[in-house]
Amino acid sequence: MGSLTEENYIKSIYALSEATGEVYVSELAKKLDVKLPSVNSMVKRLATKKLVAYAPYKGIKLTEKGKKEALAIIRKHRLAELFLVKVMGLGWEEVHDIAEQLEHVNSSRFYERIDELLNRPKFDPHGEPIPDSNGKIYNQQRTSLIDLEEGLTATITAVTEDEKSFLDHLNAKGLQIGDSVTIMKREMFDGSITLQHKSKKEILLTHQVAERIWVEVTVTRS
Amino acid sequence: MGSLTEENYIKSIYALSEATGEVYVSELAKKLDVKLPSVNSMVKRLATKKLVAYAPYKGIKLTEKGKKEALAIIRKHRLAELFLVKVMGLGWEEVHDIAEQLEHVNSSRFYERIDELLNRPKFDPHGEPIPDSNGKIYNQQRTSLIDLEEGLTATITAVTEDEKSFLDHLNAKGLQIGDSVTIMKREMFDGSITLQHKSKKEILLTHQVAERIWVEVTVTRS
DNA sequence: ATAATATGTTAGATGACTCTAATATTTTAA
DNA sequence: TTAAAATATTAGAGTCATCTAACATATTAT
Ligand SMILES: [Mn+2]
Ligand SMILES: [Mn+2]
Ligand SMILES: [Mn+2]
Ligand SMILES: [Mn+2]
């Protein structure tokens, strides 16, 4: 295991490569909120340790070893989040920041026990898959709310955003993982969407919010 | 809050001052397993931050501010240990090392929740008192097993040693916090002690082990 | 093909924390 | 009261992780 800083670099490289394919030094700098030369020297160090392969202007790629480390950290992060919600009774909007710290705890006993208590869970409180202890990740097929036709009914499976303000927003709207929603109206003008919710209420979501909500279609046009 | 390193210095200074009164740079170096000059410069830094008062050859003293920080860390450590035992089902011999990491987690929510779940506990799994959120600590009067006369019966209230090997040793002997024991024999020659235990077994403890076990006398000589 | 833009590097410095080697001061004991 | 022992300090250097300022290279758009 590397230092805390190293772990955060590895994790960010993994996240960016999932999101955008190529990972540039400059992108990483923005994500980690450090300056370019800092990233430049750290990437060199990671390359020396065979955690990444780096070709200037071509991007940074995690090696197998690096990927394995990233997945181990993500596993710990997501197990921690679920534990905080299920066992400790915290809200899904307040666990990410704590998990950012707990993911660096070095104790197989601790995480083995969490995994056991939660009965080898497959998803975190935000619907993100939890890699198993070998780093294997179950990748669901994902459809965003913004891609659904009017009239369709779907179940919310995940949200791709950990930020408290976003989750507070969903809480205020009364939306949760597992909720069933029907698309009532898609606005051409601003991309906003009106949903019919199990609570019987109609909910309006902006494009910006809807695109971060992932669903599985359960009922096709009636 | 200071850095992780700073927190560990503060905690060690507190522990040493409880144990031996005066805390010398040299003692601290031994405890933290770093060299003298490292401690020397860190102590200067802590003094600049008004966390300690330092007079060479006279010892290091925590200021009120430093004491408060130490107690906050100790509180987190002990809450974590108890949580790991009571909620997560780990053994008292394996929680210290994990708590050494969890004590640095910065989240009042996390610790507030642990405190609540455990119902504002007063003692950790080793019988050590847990400071309250104001840093107030309930200091029990302590009698060591080695100070009991033959024939007395007492209850084990605490052990002053977190090391796994020591606690493994007690586990092997079948001794736990709360157990009632009667002093059968005190050996003059080597200071060892023979106990009658609730399990009906006789248990022999060396002086080295017995002196780390604290008790409350429940039955005086019959 | 040149200019503009995106992307990356080098040099040199800083702060936190650590080390070794050499030296200094204070306390205590003979 | 001098020597020995305990305690502490300074000087100088190294690693990790960061920064600013200046410069360099590659990609792309005109
Ligand atoms: Mn998260
Ligand atoms: Mn999550
Ligand atoms: Mn402990
Ligand atoms: Mn303890």
Throw out a few tags for this protein.
homodimer; 222 residues; alpha+beta; Arc Repressor Mutant, subunit A; SH3 type barrels; two-stranded antiparallel sheet; globular; binds manganese (II) ion; DNA-binding
Q: Categorize the overall geometry of chain A.
A: globular
Return the CATH architecture of the largest domain in chain A.
Answer: Roll
Mean pLDDT of chain A: 95
Radius of gyration of chain A: 19 Å
Unreliable stretches covering 5 or more consecutive residues of chain A: none
Catalogue the ligands: manganese (II) ion
Could you name the CATH homologous superfamily of the largest domain in chain A? Ferrous iron transport protein A (FeoA)
Integer count of domains of chain A = 3
The assembly state of the depicted protein chains is: homodimer
